[in-house]
Design brief:
Chondroitin_lyas; Glycosyltransferase; about 150 residues; mainly alpha; about 55% helix; single chain
Length: about 150
């Protein structure tokens, strides 16, 4: 699969009409890149890194919710695979901005720990599991990366 996604002129990589393409393919390939570690070629690392920048949260500004969390997850995986400490710091800082209790009627975490997203939609735990998991990943990997010599 990695070869298909990194093949030059691949329609998978170059399909701009995929509405959910900003995070689906990049999340898949950066996860594989991280899993394979040293068993990838420089070409594969380069192409997957290029693919991963389709989910640039600083340009797309997805606001809050799972789309943002997935984009930050991609940044974490890309940063770990390329030993980019700045990317880890930026992603964690952006992630931490959403960890606030919102006033009633606002978007985000409510004082009853439910999550209101897209105005009136009530999601009890639908996004909190993703937020919690990604924060744990950031904390774990940041500790590992920053303790390395």
């Amino acid at each position: 699969m990695m070869q298909a996604l990194t093949y030059p002129n691949s329609s998978v990589r170059n399909e701009p009409r995929l509405a959910i393409g900003t995070h689906c393919i990049p999340r898949l390939v950066t996860g594989q890149l991280l899993m394979l570690g040293d068993n990838t070629t420089n070409f594969e690392v380069q192409k997957i890194t290029e693919i991963s920048f389709r989910s640039d949260w600083w340009e797309h500004n997805p606001g809050t919710g799972a789309n943002l969390v997935w984009m930050l997850q991609i940044e974490l995986y890309r940063s770990l695979a390329t030993n980019n400490r700045t990317g880890i710091e930026q992603g964690f800082t952006r992630m931490w901005q959403d960890i606030v209790v919102s006033p009633l009627g606002g978007q985000g975490i409510q004082n009853d720990w439910s999550y209101h997203f897209q105005r009136t939609q009530l999601l009890s735990g639908a996004y909190m599991d993703k937020i919690g998991l990604l924060l744990c990943l950031y904390l774990f990997y940041a500790q590992e990366l920053f303790n390395m010599n």
